[in-house]
Amino acid sequence: MPNRIKNAQLSTLTLDANSGMTLHQQLFLALRQAILEGRLKPGVRLPSSRALAADLGISRNTVLGVYDQLTAEGYLASRIGAGSYVSDELPDDLLQRKREGDKRRTAPRDVYRSRMAAPYRGRPIKPAVRSLPFSPGLPALEVFPFDDWARLLARHWRRPSREALVDNPIGGTKALREAIAAYLGQTRAVRCHADQVIVLSGSQQAIHLVVRAFAEPGDAIWMEEPGYPGFRDSILSAGATPVSVPVDAEGFSLETALQLAPDARLACISPSHQYPLGQTMSLARRLDLLRWAKETGRFILEDDYDSEYRYTGRPLTSLQGLDDDNRVLYVGTMSKIMFSGLRVGYMVVPEDLVDVFLALRRIIDSHSPSVPEAALADFINDGYLASHVRRTRQLYEARQTRLVRLLQEKLGDLLRVEPQESGMHLVAFLPPHIRDREIEQAAAEKGMLVRALSSFYNLPTDQTGLILGFAGTREEDMPDLVDRLASIIRDRA
């Protein structure tokens, strides 16, 4: 976990022992950037080397070395007996280059004044999700069979075919497409053959391609409310209009959707395990939505992101498995059941649309890595994946049970939480006066990654809550983590 400086003026600086840079490099660059950006103004006194080292949990010699380097380069001035101060004589040409650099970076904004880019101006880029406790969607990496995985990779790297080193089919390695088709047929009742499977670098790429294929600028596209932000981002990037359809206990409502936007071109939903609330779309509503798609010639994007993990009964049949008119585009990922660094997602498309999506995929990148795909095909075909899912399903159920019990014991008077029938996260509902985004920020500072439920709503809402991943958080760590979270929430109750 990164160490954070306690001094108020330096509160945004962090050091990470797992970074590829040394602690000296990290601290030097962080302090220099703070000076150049004006967060540390001329004349400001820095903490003593002893105090800063204690705050960061690093060697005092490291801090002394950084201070010496900053002083030598003119960023700091050392005053005998008084400590180190930000220099009030920084070179004018350095500051001038900084200002000119800022102008150069902002000048090209005119290029992005199109309708499609307008919704993104001024929006911050969120950092990648880290493997912190309670991270939603984080699997139990510590139990993954890496020895088996390494052996399969070595098998294909030892004597790779010439084709594997030169090229790969646009839709992915044939062996992997065949393995995925068979796996989905057995576990999710998806009806397809290998040619309908397109392997991609994550489910978000699949969502992006589907929206691009069906949306024209200004078109209305349905998505769930609250819902997965990746849907909204892809819809906006295509210049289309996301229409937020509130979900209820039965999931996505076609009746409500038609009232909001009767001419919608596409429905983007997660019917088996709604994200983030977790309910399952009722069979009657599934059939109604399929009927709508068939009668109007529209399509449905089905995001089936973690449905392997169902704890009551067998996994539900996919919406695609109920489709008799080729109206559903099915999207899945290996990030939740294996690990996100693998960067493998996939989509299953109707036969008459395969060429369309291969052409769209070619525009993004001509093909994906062939050797990891060949190893993944073996991982599926040799039974490793099914075994891993069975093992982790039992593990996740136990972790969910423990987390629910702890939350109810320690915060039962302030939040409402119930076990989920499936998935890898819980939703803990808070009273409206507790601001969940403040809890999210405070938890991050304490080394936990929880998500504010309100941030998944596009429409105004009084609903607050926390999305807590349990799959990647060990049971033995949960009591201390829940105590930390309880302290944060009670401080704001």
Description:
This protein has 493 residues and is α/β, with parallel strands linked by helices. It has three domains: 3-92, Winged helix-like DNA-binding domain superfamily/Winged helix DNA-binding domain (Arc Repressor Mutant, subunit A, Orthogonal Bundle), CATH 1.10.10; 144-382, Aspartate Aminotransferase, domain 2 (3-Layer(aba) Sandwich), CATH 3.40.640.10; 391-491, Aspartate Aminotransferase, domain 1. Helix content is 41%, strand content 12%. It has 17 helices and 14 strands. Strands 5-11-10-9-8-6-7 form a seven-stranded mixed β-sheet, with helices on both faces. A three-stranded antiparallel β-sheet has the order 12-14-13, covered by helices on one side. Strands 1-2 form a two-stranded antiparallel ribbon. The longest helix has 28 residues, at 384-411. The chain is globular, with a radius of gyration of 26 Å. The model is unreliable at 1-6 and 91-117 (pLDDT under 50).
Features:
alpha/beta; globular; Aspartate Aminotransferase, domain 1; disordered N terminus; Aspartate Aminotransferase, domain 2; 17 helices; 493 residues
Describe, in short, the structure shown.
By secondary structure, the chain is of the alpha/beta class.
Q: From the coordinates shown, what is the CATH architecture of the largest domain?
A: 3-Layer(aba) Sandwich
Number of H/I helices: 17
Strand order of the largest sheet: 5-11-10-9-8-6-7
- Beginning-to-end CA distance, first to last residue: 27 Å
Radius of gyration: 26 Å
Could you name the CATH topology of the largest domain?
Aspartate Aminotransferase, domain 2
The tally of strands reads 14
Largest sheet, in brief, is:
7 strands, mixed
Helix content: 40-55%
